[in-house]
Structure prediction request, 353 residues.
Amino acid sequence: MPYTHFRYIAYEVPTATRRTDVPGPTLAGLPPGKLCDPVPDIAVPKAPESTDWFIRLRRLAAVVNIARANVGDDDPGTLKVFVAPEFYLRPADPATSHTYSTNQYSQVWDALEKMFRTPRFKNWLIVPGSVLWYSDVLVANEKTYFNSVLYLRGGADGGEAGRIEKKLASSMDGVPTRSAVGNVSEPLVKRAYSEAAFLRERLFEIDAKAHFGLEICLDHRLKVLKQTLADRQADGADPWKRGGPALHVLTAGGMPLNPASVAARPGGYVLRNDGYADPPASELRKVTAYQLPSNAPGQAWDDKAVATLEADPGTAVEIPLRGDAVLVPPIAGPGTYDMPVQRLRLYPPLPLP
Prediction:
């Protein structure tokens, strides 16, 4: 049976910070914190207990478990959409520009792919924020940096649903921007990164009604999802001609919502979660229409079309997270840092357009 409704669950957690007592730069790679107790049916593959990614994934498991406990009865007609912010998986290691090695990334990927394969999460889509990592084999004598999002289906038959890459790194990524994968000029890397099949994973289908678009931070300002949708409209062999995704998911670290970059269909929604933002850190906005500069109606894929958005409905139930292990700690040392409330925001179910 196709999904008829969705329910947005935002995990608000800081993924970057700044000093509040003196001027200074944005600080990346917050400490991993303490190790959460395991959740019996959300298994994180074993690693030394001080391993950065292991601590962060155990916290993710604990927070998703709290969300599941607060959702109540699992209506099979409602898809739960859990979103963490960009940079959730970024190590506190300045020596690697706060990125994991290829081997560590493979361990993270393998863990995420398996974690939510449990019947309790059959009707869940999980966007666990992004993973910052590097490869030292793609370009001779250089590191290539990636900012990847693996989106996941829950349930016994779940696992990886797809992966997207951030197109261009920003200063917030904390990596040498010329070595970010979107800027690498080596021909084989450039060709692989621009393969149409790979780019199309920004748009994906769960069933006949649940269609999604996924975007990472700066890509939103650059209208990357909107352009991907336009490219697919122009491809006669591509079946994606439904007026845009029902849900436009934006995982970010310092990126406000831009109505000119929205790509959800009229009647659809934008789901934003930002780990480095002035309030609101998360929001849910309904798209009512698109308008061109001429005031004529537009389409979601029109480059100059601007979305008309309803205000956030203000209906989310807010669940503060408590306990040292569940909370990401501030950076140690002198000074004070901006550390917003860490919480879950559970919106009520809404119909899919």
User: Anything to note?
Assistant: The longest strand covers residues 142-153. The CA atoms of residues 35 and 50 lie 8 Å apart. The two ends are 16 Å apart (CA to CA).
